[in-house]
Amino acid sequence: MSTLYQFPFSHFCEKARWALDYKQHPYAVRNLLPLFHLTTTLRPGRKTSLPLLIEGDLRLQDSGEIIDYLDRRHPHKPLTPIPAEEARLAREWERVLDKDLGVTLRRWFYFHTLPDTPHARYFLEQDLPASRRHLFRLCFPLVRRAMQHRMRITPDTAASALDTLERTLDRLDTIVGGQPFLVGNHFSRADLTGAALLSPLRARGRTQEELQAIFSPPVWQWWKSFHQRPTSTWLEQMYRDYR
Ligand SMILES: N[C@@H](CCC(=O)N[C@@H](CS)C(=O)NCC(=O)O)C(=O)O
């Protein structure tokens, strides 16, 4: 049995979870708290990020590597297209989306959310058992500083992240406004990556009041224009049909 170490709120962890569920690969989940996760992930010469999948001696610490492994283990319903050129394109999309959608959305989102304690705690405490909430609240000022430092969040990096995020969304709008998949005629790791990394922005049928309780005011203002984009419609379709 595999164990997935994750942050429940993390979109890179959602990418790994989606791939595991899509392949019906059995796994147990261990939810970790930011900063406290270092007791599990910190090892000399290794990165510290989640998701981390451990299965026997196997230790995969990257959502893309987890998809590679799952495609090898369960070749049915391939997430990497079989035709070589489509496989190359899907991997290239994944690389671009990880960087220009995943990292940028996270940096810009946390730039606005972390200083706003009620919104930040609401977001970060998702799926946290009540028993651990107290500890998390006590440590939150420290956790906030560590997250801002590790993600290199400053007004300048946040502004540049928003610029890249908008350009990536413009590019996605052009493609998914006219075709269902980013590559070829099938759902692939490119679509899974794009949709998972945008998952924190899903409305999930919530009312305006509920959304405003989740998103800090600047994120809420921006979200209203995101919601008008073809990419937002595509995001919901990907979740409806493939998640
Ligand atoms: N390239 C990695 C990125 C994962 C990542 O950035 N994870 C973040 C959470 S969204 C993390 O664990 N940050 C804490 C750390 O790096 O120690 C992947 O695809 O798995």
Automatic annotation (TrEMBL):
InterPro entries: Glutathione-S-Trfase_C_sf, Glutathione_S-Trfase_N, GST_C, Thioredoxin-like_sf
Organism superkingdom: Bacteria
Any Pfam family matching the protein: GST_N_3
Location of the GST N-terminal domain: 1-78
SUPFAM superfamilies, per database record: GST C-terminal domain-like, Thioredoxin-like
Name by which UniProt lists this protein: GST N-terminal domain-containing protein
Phylogenetic classification of the source organism: Bacteria, Pseudomonadati, Pseudomonadota, Betaproteobacteria, Neisseriales
